[in-house]
Amino acid sequence: MPIAANTLWTEQLPRSLAREPLRQPLEVDVAIIGAGFTGLWTAYFLKRQAPHLRIAVFEQQTVGFGASGRNGGWLLGCLLGEEQFLAGVGPAQKAALRALLKGIPDRVFEVLQREGIECGFRKGGVLTCAARYPEQHQHLCEELRRLHAAGHSEADYRYLTASELSEQVRMAGAYGAIYSPHCATVQPAQLVSGLAAAVERLGVSVYEYSRVEQWRSGQLTVAGHSVQAGWVVPCVEGHAADCPPLGRYQLAVQSLQIATEPMAAAQWDEIGLADGQAAHECSRQVTYFHRTRDDRLVFGARGSYRFGGRLRENFQLSADELSYRRRLLLELFPQLTGVPISHGWGGNLGMTRHFRPYMLCDTSSGFASAGGYGGEGVGASFLAGQTLADLILQRDTLCTHAPWVTRQQNLSKTLRRWEPEPLRWLGYNAVIAAFTVEDNVLANPTSAPWRRRLVSAVAGGVSALVSPEFKAG
Ligand SMILES: Cc1cc2nc3c(=O)[nH]c(=O)nc-3n(C[C@H](O)[C@H](O)[C@H](O)COP(=O)(O)OP(=O)(O)OC[C@H]3O[C@@H](n4cnc5c(N)ncnc54)[C@H](O)[C@@H]3O)c2cc1C
After folding, report:
1. What pLDDT score does 471 carry?
2. Residue 70: CB within 6 Å of ligand 1?
3. I want to staple 409 with a disulfide (CB 3.0 to 4.6 A). Which of 5, 307, 357, 362 is the partner?
């Protein structure tokens, strides 16, 4: 059976006419670059609080063309690098920020209800599973201890025995899991297109096929036309290479996923995931999966990095890319052998050098931007939109005082530059090679204990050399 290269998500959207490109010079209060979650949430929160603002969103392709319309649909109530961010924060602020992050899925749900956006939202929580080899269980227990020591409660992160886990998802040879309720799953293309329609109803202008060719303080060139703007707000995440100088600080990494054909109820009885739970196994293969509203299993895993940080445009997955994901899927769910894979696709996501997101704003030059969510941007972009809106409107809120906020335009003072090539490429590939060897050895039950310890030590050492927070897409 041929495998569709377009994303499952956009294929499920009703056909609609493209929005008009920009056809003449324009003057606005806020010019937002990029119609993904970050740009649209920023427009949404700005317009709700300050309806008089003239806001335009410029998208080089169509709404949700970037990662927002292609991702795995996990809407997480946390932030990549949260613990490092909160390390130096006082107890009261820390508790308030933790509650802010955990509350993201519920606050998104409130907006969905208010705006009538249907995107298959289900808050089934997230399962971090030890399922492919025993070392994962040890890792899981350490992770749980770390989370509780950092102040998270049993209600936030709870251990599930193998038999408790099997009430939620049935995987071959599972050892146990951590369950957290702070996650929902959504159909991301429906969310981003519903959000675009909502901001338009509020009076925001969204231009498609309107590439921002140049920008500086107060001034942009969009599809050959001049735009004057009080604020310029690039929200381009994994597409930063298309929006200099952001590309030096935010590198494109690809993540890839596959989807099965819809499966029958009897097949799902063998798997579980009945409540829309997000799930992954805690190896370094960065897997993620959930059951869609139309009863498919969507399964993603680590992608790739292209020399020079080049964007990937063709997401027709190669035979190797498909079989790697299918192999991992079948290791977890051998009961799915023979189930056809109908779709394979991917997207570019943005990674900063310190592997943490940023939200920054400079009132003197009228510049604000957010990104670098590193594969955890569906919920984080909601927070970013709210935060950028508060910063632009000069409101004093919990969001604007968060440790991930910087109040200046100078990117080099907030973000570290990536190393030049070929260092990045060599570093990435060394880490991936170490992770692959480790995974092959650990997944083989006959590997000798000394080999298992050695490959894990090497993989841990190599990734720590790149960064303690390294995550491979
Ligand atoms: C395969 C995959 C799976 C993922 N899974 C998850 C997940 O399950 N959960 C999670 O939390 N996160 C996930 N992510 C990450 C998440 O999707 C992103 O972090 C998030 O969508 C980023 O949103 P954004 O609006 O900042 O960027 P994007 O959605 O990438 O939007 C940026 C937009 O800017 C436009 N643009 C760029 N340059 C210009 C220009 N010069 N002029 C005009 N427009 C421009 C682009 O065309 C693009 O549409 C995943 C990402 C991928 C790729």
Report:
1. 52
2. yes
3. 362
Beta-sheet strand order (sheet of 278-281)? 158-161, 176-180, 126-130, 278-281, 288-291, 297-304, 250-260, 341-352
Quick check: CB of 381 below 6 Å from ligand 1? yes
Query: Quick check: CB of 378 below 6 Å from ligand 1?
Result: yes
Please calculate the CA angle 454-177-372 and round it to the nearest 5 degrees: 75
Q: Which atom of ligand 1 is nearest to the CA of 256?
A: 1
pLDDT tens for residues 384-412? Answer: 999 999 999 999 999 999 999 999 777 77
Indicate the top mutation candidate among 220, 373, 382 to test ligand 1's pocket, ranked by most ligand atoms within 8 A of CB: 373
C-alpha torsion 438→444→450→455, nearest 10: 0
Structural domain total, the chain = 3
* 21 & 130 share domain: no
Check whether residue 324 and residue 360 sit in a common domain: no
Q: For the residues of 424-438, what is the DSSP string, one character each?
A: HHHHHHHHHHHHHHH
Q: Which atom of ligand 1 is nearest to the CA of 62?
A: 49
Query: Which residue has the CA at smallest separation from atom 53 of ligand 1?
Result: 347
- Structural domain span for residue 207: 8-74+188-249+354-414
Same domain for 341 and 358, yes or no, is no
- The string of pLDDT tens digits covering residues 265-323 is 999 999 999 999 999 998 888 899 999 999 999 999 988 899 999 999 999 999 999 99
Three-state DSSP class for residue 472: coil
Closest C-alpha to ligand 1, atom 18? 377
- Measured from the Cα of 239, ligand 1's closest atom is 37
